[in-house]
Amino acid sequence: MDPLERLQIFHRVAELASFSQAALSLNLPKASASTAVQQLETQLGTRLLHRTTRRVQLTQDGQAFYERSKDVLADMDELQAMFQQQAATGLSGRVRIDMSTGLARDIVIPRLPELLAAHPLLEVELSSTERRVDLVREGFDCVLRTGSVVDTSLIARPLGALRQLNCASPAYIQAFGMPQTLADLADHRLIHFVGTLGGKSAGFEYTDDAGMARSIAMAGAVTVNNAEAYAAACLAGLGIIQVPQIGESAHLRSGALVQVLPQFLAPPMPLNLLYANRRNLSQRVRVVMDWLAGVIADAQVGS
After folding, report:
1. Helix axes 245-254 and 227-235, enclosed angle (nearest 10)
2. Distance from chain centroid for Cα 31
3. pLDDT (tens digit, 9 = 90+) per residue, 110-138?
4. Residue 75, SS3?
């Protein structure tokens, strides 16, 4: 096994936090993956991974080596591409991205066929979750993330801000009436959205006449932590939700949802494309990031 193969195996083990899963994804025996990492550690003279019966975790040296060696693998991919005849087939290799469930379902995945048609050898690993993934530790090339950027170690490419709407189902409005003022919300229910169950809901958010963000605590029997459940609860008539317009346009057009209190909208939600601060980005990652930016721009124009 050559040094590059050992490095690739180490990266997959680090990304999946598992020797068995890494070996399975690379079609290797588990023992081969373990031996490759041991040989790499011997070569470097340091331990790269903590191993227990339950988990595999990067050591401090392993984390530093993982981050620096990403550039090596990216450069090798670029060098190989220089000598491959890919004019007719476009880019090749894997790009791992993460985004919210709603963005994946409603905006990105419906447009994905055109990207793969243009680059048949490109492989896309798309994670859709509401949690904030660790871009570096989990091996993501880029992530689409709403809200403010708190990790200053990442580079943020602003993609605009998503207009928010207040929505409810016709069945809910029939049962509770259409609120006309903020005071009316005392007699209504909000479907609460939290990143982690047990967390505190922000309540009903709106922008006041001075442009300041405000919130009102509201009653609600249901709390969810992902976009699919959030929309489903609203469609079931369980309360009011506050969501980006581009995610619920189809439901609004069909009449499955209606707008509520359009004069009291939550502040627009910033959307950024985040990626690690590396010396170089591979061409395929640049192309995918540019494509994502275009898809988001098209969705906002058409919303």
Report:
1. 30
2. 33
3. 999 999 999 988 999 998 877 777 787 78
4. helix
Residues with Cβ within 8 Å of residue 174, at least 6 apart in sequence: none
Rounded Cα distance, 168 and 201, in Å? 18
The amino acid sitting at 53 is T
Residue 295: count of CB within 10 angstroms of its CB: 20
With CA atoms as reference, report the closest residue to 1 among 35, 25, 24, 26.
35
What is the 3-state secondary structure of 86-107? CCCCCCEEEEEEEECHHHHHHH
**What phi-psi label fits residue 215: left (phi over 0), alpha (psi between -120 and 50 degrees) or beta?**
beta
Tokens describing residue 74: 């990216």
Q: Is 228 helix (H, G, I), strand (E, B) or coil?
A: helix
> Residues 229-256: pLDDT tens digits?
899 999 999 999 998 887 777 788 899 9
